[in-house]
């Protein structure tokens, strides 16, 4: 199964969660409203999330605003793994 969760990098709050994610986590979507994503991570993985999402580790969005930048430049992918409790 696959699911999606959008998290604000400023507040850490969940902005969007797919129906599949709520179902997999056995919660109603409303349960996640105003919740911080790290509240659902295994305690030992909270630091992994914060380390992986610090601004200097994320793709530089300003390169995507230049006319000469290719689509490939703007599609940098970043993966990391965290366990859900």
Structure, explained:
By secondary structure, the protein is of the alpha+beta class. It has two domains: 40 residues, no CATH class; 43 residues, no CATH class. The protein is 15% helix and 8% strand. It has two helices and two strands; from the N terminus they run ββαα. Strands 1-2 form a two-stranded antiparallel sheet. A hairpin with a 6-residue loop joins β1 and β2. It is globular. The mean pLDDT is 80.
Q: What is the compact description of this entry?
A:
By secondary structure, the protein is of the alpha+beta class. It is built from 2 helices and 2 strands; from the N terminus they run ββαα. It has helices at residues 19-24, 46-52; strands spanning 5-7, 14-17.
Q: Helical element count?
A: 2
Q: How are the strands of the biggest sheet laid out side by side? A: 1-2
Judged by helices, strands and strand pairing, the structural class is alpha+beta
- Number of spatially distinct domains: 2
Q: Please indicate the percent range of residues in DSSP E strands (runs of 2 or more).
A: 5-15%
State the end-to-end CA separation: 17 Å
Features:
85 residues; transcription corepressor binding; Per1-3_PAS-A; single chain; two-stranded antiparallel sheet
List the helices and strands and how they pair.
Blueprint: E1 5-7, E2 14-17, H1 19-24, H2 46-52
């Amino acid at each position: 199964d696959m699911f999606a969760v959008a998290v604000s990098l400023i507040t850490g709050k969940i902005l969007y969660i797919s129906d599949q994610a709520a179902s997999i986590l056995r919660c109603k979507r409303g349960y996640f409203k105003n919740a911080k994503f790290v509240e659902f991570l295994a305690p030992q993985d909270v630091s992994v999330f914060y380390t992986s999402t610090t601004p200097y580790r994320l793709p530089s969005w300003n390169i995507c605003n230049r006319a000469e930048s290719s689509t490939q430049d703007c599609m940098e992918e970043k993966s990391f793994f965290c366990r859900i409790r």
